[in-house]
Design brief:
By secondary structure, the protein is an alpha+beta fold. It contains 3 helices and 6 strands, in the order βαββαβαββ. It has a 6-stranded mixed beta sheet with strand order 1-2-3-6-4-5, with helices on one face.
Length: 130
């Protein structure tokens, strides 16, 4: 049986230029790309606040999951990338607010920086529907 491929767009003008999607569903698998704390106005939210930025990243990722037909309960892996690992507890608090009962595998990793220096965190999510 051939599985279909569905792409989910965030509406970013960078998607076609770079060649990426916010999320891709192939069969029952959904991958959500590195998600930054970008507000509706295109500006970063929660300046200097890792918890607020992580919440925003998770909001965006959850919306992409829903558009692809998945829910947070389908999430099997998350990756939390931080520019300052000493802030991991604030990111972990936001993660726990969504995933305490679901308990996907997760990885916290420190990176040197993101595209926008005001971003303190990015989140990736993988889900398997069903």
């Amino acid at each position: 049986m051939e599985s279909t491929r569905q792409t989910v767009s965030s509406g970013s003008p960078l998607e076609p230029r770079i060649g990426f999607s916010r999320a891709v569903r192939k069969g029952d698998y959904v991958a959500v790309a590195g998600t930054a704390p970008i507000g509706e106005d295109g500006a970063p939210v929660g300046q200097g606040d890792v918890h607020a930025q992580t919440v925003r990243c998770l909001d965006i990722a959850e919306a992409a999951l829903r558009e692809a037909g998945a829910t947070l309960a389908d999430v099997v892996r998350t990756r939390i990338m931080l520019t300052d690992m000493s802030q991991w507890r604030e990111a972990a608090r936001a993660h726990g607010e969504r995933f305490a009962q679901i308990r996907p595998v997760t990885t916290f990793v420190e990176v040197s920086r993101f595209i926008d220096e005001r971003w303190l965190v990015e989140v990736e999510v993988d889900a398997v529907i069903g």
